[in-house]
Specification:
The chain is of the alpha/beta class. Helix content is 39%, strand content 13%. Strand 3, helix 3 and strand 4 form a beta-alpha-beta unit. The longest helix is centred in the middle third of the chain and has 15 residues. It starts with a strand and ends with a helix.
């Protein structure tokens, strides 16, 4: 799994892929290097990271998903704990929901996964 953190404060690569063009280029590089899946996140999960609004998270990930959808043959995954972000990501081309909160945030995530057929 190739990871694309579209955040300014990721514990690993914060700000390296903060703009959509850089994030897309990184994802394409990961696929070319053999990644079987691309996981895109717009909110840092590092210890002490501040939560971001749903609107901000959408602003970070949707352009990346839209640019990659149909352009890569590997599944796209959305790394989020917000059902609204997951729903929009699925509409933008994601097929996997990576809820790192393990559904502790909102029960709606389970319903969304079941109804959409997302992995």
């Amino acid at each position: 799994m190739g990871v694309v953190n579209a955040t300014p404060d990721s514990f690993y690569d914060g700000a390296r892929f903060e703009n959509a063009d850089a994030a897309v280029a990184h994802a394409l590089h990961l696929v070319a290097e053999g990644a079987d899946m691309i996981d895109i996140g717009g909110e840092s999960s590092r210890p002490g990271a501040a939560s971001v609004s749903e609107d901000e998270e959408l602003r970070r990930v949707i352009p990346v998903l839209e640019a990659l959808s149909g352009r890569v043959a590997v599944p796209l995954s959305i790394d989020t704990v917000k059902p609204g972000v997951a729903r929009a990501a699925l509409q933008a081309g994601a097929s996997v929901i990576n809820d790192i909160g393990a559904n502790r945030e909102d029960e709606a995530m389970w319903r969304l996964a079941a109804e959409s057929g997302a992995a």
